[in-house]
């Protein structure tokens, strides 16, 4: 599966500091990939225990929680929606989302609305199994 960089955990502020690049990446991911439309103007803060990043606006809440086994989970209004990956890069925890599997892009030709048949992908082609979050 291909991965998409979302943000560096260590760059998210506890107080009112800003990291506009990482914050915009995260908000864009929530808007575009998770279909969460209320993120414009949302605030992003990290908990003092360094285990939760909260994205909130009005009564809406998204949390990204790192548990004791170093797994990150994205929750929308207390429902688990996606597992995220943590990678250590230069001593910082970078958070990534898994996109669609790499083989998925091979299903579409240059016009996404025109689906190729599996037989067009060559003899013996077997796509990777996909596990979707619940």
TrEMBL record:
UniProt superkingdom: Archaea
Listed name of the protein: Uncharacterized protein
The organism's taxonomic lineage, starting at the top: Archaea, Methanobacteriati, Methanobacteriota, Stenosarchaea group, Methanomicrobia
């Amino acid at each position: 599966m291909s991965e998409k960089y979302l943000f560096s955990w260590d760059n998210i502020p506890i107080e009112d500091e800003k990291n506009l690049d990482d914050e915009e990446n995260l908000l864009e991911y929530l808007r575009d990939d998770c279909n969460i439309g209320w993120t414009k103007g949302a605030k992003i803060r990290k908990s003092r225990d360094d285990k939760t990043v909260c994205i909130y606006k009005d009564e809406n809440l998204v949390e990204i929680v790192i548990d004791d086994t170093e797994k990150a989970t994205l929750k929308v209004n207390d429902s688990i929606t996606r597992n995220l990956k943590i990678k250590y890069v230069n001593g910082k925890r970078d958070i990534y989302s898994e996109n669609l599997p790499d083989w998925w892009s091979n299903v579409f030709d240059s016009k996404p609305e025109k689906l190729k048949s599996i037989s067009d992908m060559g003899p013996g082609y077997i796509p990777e199994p996909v596990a979707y979050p619940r």
